[in-house]
Specification:
The protein is of the alpha+beta class. The protein folds into two domains: 7-189, Beta-Lactamase (2-Layer Sandwich); 191-394, Alpha-Beta Plaits (2-Layer Sandwich). Helices cover 39% and strands 29% of the residues. The strands form two sheets. Strands 7, 8, 9, 10, 11, 12, 13, 14 and 15 form a nine-stranded mixed β-sheet that branches. Helix 1 packs parallel to helix 6 (155-189). It starts with 10 loop residues before the first helix and ends with a strand.
Amino acid sequence: MANASSPLVSPLFDWLVDGAPGATGPQDVVARIGLDLNREGAPVARIAAFVRTLHPHLMGRRFTWLRGREGVEVSVAPYATLRSPDFLGSPVARVYTTAAGFRRRLDGSEPLEHADLHSFRNSGYTDYLIEPMHFLDGQIHAITFATDPPGGFTSEQIALIRHINRPLSRIAEVLALRRTAADLLSAYVGRDAGERILKGQIQRGDVENIRCVVWFSDLRGFTRMSAQKESPALIAILNRLFDCQIPAVERAGGQVLKFMGDGMLAIFPIPAGTEAAEVADRALAAAGEAFSALDQTNEGSAEAALSFGIALHVGEVAYGNIGGVGRLDFTCIGAAVNLAARIEGLTAPTGKRLLFSAAVADLLPEKTSSVGSFTLKGVEGEAEVFEPFTPGGPILAP
């Protein structure tokens, strides 16, 4: 068994110390560990790395490698997992709490105090090992190893695993920090904006002009609600409002850029080579989905029914970093954004849920009908606005 009796000469250890060159993410690292441990004499059959993350909805991720299977499976766990009885009594939870390793032979020689251990034994594994991964900030994460030869792991094989776990913890921490940065940026500024920031578009004035469909929405009656409701109730209302819209926008390829009190600004970029009409049609479908979600949440709520208006316009915007020294915002500005906001202001007085600009109507002539021409603040001349329409009548009733 080459190297297992002398882990200090492990090529896998050296690869990890060198920063895992060639690996593009945690899946590559976990796969390489599984393959190399087997080459170096430790017959690992299953690896699962558990890494906590800082994310508004996800507690962490698990990366599972199985010998003989292609690739690494990635699964996510919500925060509720931490409170579940299955997790609280699990060996992984014990490692999180004690910061010490855990081992159980699965051949019947030791008691199996958790359902997971019985499941591993029933799957043919003979030994199960968990090693804590200590991050520099004091956090504890975990990686598990299972094997299937009679007798389980030897002491030399466990020594090899524990030896490579030291540099692995540093690699895992670097990858976790990258993922946390991407998750937080996506949550607070949007996926595309977050990717641009991580790639270095961070200086004030880093702006480009892009063509897009602009989405502007606003809750009706928010001023009255603000005067009548306490802050927690008001925040709950806003969360309901945005829950109706954000999934629909993102599923249709849109990017939510900003919340302005009860208002929301999103864009649907029109990349080169993409038909603007196709993007506008997706934005229209997203609006329909958002209103359907609104109707459902109103039906299931004891609170007063919510209502919001949406305006769509297509045009060019300046997209990028705007702000002052030490405080930037990644957003979009321009006449197209202003026009969308002004058109949305017409939804309440006209009794319409959704209104379009003439530019959108030109892209979807068979799906729009004129509502009339209006004088809009900050817009030269009168602007004709449209609503979605089919031969049978309006697509979206007020």
